[in-house]
From TrEMBL:
It is found in: Membrane. The keyword Ligase does not apply. The chain crosses the membrane at residues 41-65. This is Protein SPEC3. It is a multi-pass membrane protein. It comes from Caenorhabditis tropicalis. Keywords: Membrane, Transmembrane, Transmembrane helix. GO terms for cellular component: membrane; sensory dendrite.
């Protein structure tokens, strides 16, 4: 079952997810090839004292750890974006408010003259 999961994770990388390979082009294709090769290697090593079975369990654990780290990084980026947007909104609002006050003061001075 774990061997099939490794192969399926390679195909699912084509549709969704973030590949772990640091290349500009062909990241998803290389992820597919790596997962296919690992899955096939796990299948052929299953006859040697279940090495492939243990290997597939370890590989699945690594995939889960990677997805948890990706989720945490995504949440942190969202929090930073919200904080930045809030600071920008407050800053822009105060700048606009200052301009309004300046125009009111100028118009008040002109009306007194």
């Amino acid at each position: 079952m774990g061997i099939l999961g490794t192969i399926i994770s390679g195909f699912s990388a084509l549709c969704m997810g973030q590949p772990r390979i640091n290349m500009k082009e062909g990241r998803k294709l290389i992820t597919l090839v790596v997962n296919l090769l690992v899955g096939i290697s796990q299948f052929f090593t299953i006859t040697f004292l279940f090495v492939g079975w243990f290997w597939s369990i370890a590989w699945g654990g690594l995939l889960i750890i990677h997805s948890m780290q990706y989720r945490e990084a995504l949440q942190q980026r969202r929090q930073e974006a919200v904080a930045t947007a809030a600071i920008e909104a407050l800053t822009k609002d105060s700048i606009l408010h200052r301009r309004d006050v300046k125009t009111l003061v100028k118009s008040h001075k002109k009306s007194k003259k």
